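Tokens in:
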């Protein structure tokens, strides 16, 4: 899984060693339900406003680790995403200044056990909250060095490219900065907090 600020980069081959992205103890992990036009089309409904769910901080893991599907389950799903790592405290910030509160972007995988989705009824606690079910990395990209509307997310499964999309305005329902501004109206976002920005 990778994100890339440059369209000509090919980094499909990754070192298999687990690489941790530094996230402070007690960081919040907030995930967006639907953010990409392609995902909304797949689901048959397009949200008017972003919606979110929380993941336990204990679900965070480094890139390249082992993920286990528990006995009795069958539907372990991948969801390649772009993660925003908050770099400066954000509380009640406007859209124009929201991106300045993002310290870095990195690749993420919002893994989930779809066997538990119906029982979770939207909370996603059991389906997406297990230890290791939010791998991040392996690299941090300085948010000041990228255009948030020009990132690309790609996901490989067993060496096969399975997802690819960009954050261009025509591909996104909501811009990435919108999540920071919106969440900051309700929460205090602190350095190290992670926002998973939805999957294509």
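Residues out:
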């Amino acid at each position: 899984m990778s994100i890339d600020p440059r369209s000509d980069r090919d980094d499909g081959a990754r070192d298999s060693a687990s690489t941790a992205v530094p996230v402070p103890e007690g960081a919040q992990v907030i995930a967006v339900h639907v953010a990409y036009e392609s995902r909304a089309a797949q689901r048959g409904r397009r949200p008017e406003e972003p919606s979110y769910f929380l993941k336990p901080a204990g679900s965070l893991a480094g890139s390249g680790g082992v993920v286990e599907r528990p006995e009795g389950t069958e539907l372990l799903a991948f969801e390649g995403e772009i993660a925003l790592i908050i770099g400066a405290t954000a509380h009640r910030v406007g859209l124009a200044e929201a991106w300045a509160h993002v310290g870095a972007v990195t690749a993420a995988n919002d893994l989930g056990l779809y066997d538990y989705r119906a029982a979770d009824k939207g909370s996603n606690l059991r389906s997406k909250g297990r230890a290791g079910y939010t791998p991040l990395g392996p690299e941090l990209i300085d948010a000041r060095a990228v255009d948030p509307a020009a990132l690309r997310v790609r996901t490989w499964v067993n060496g096969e490219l399975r997802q690819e999309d960009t954050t261009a305005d025509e591909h996104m329902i909501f811009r990435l900065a919108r999540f920071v501004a919106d969440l900051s109206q309700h929460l205090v976002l602190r350095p190290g907090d992670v926002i998973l920005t939805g999957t294509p």
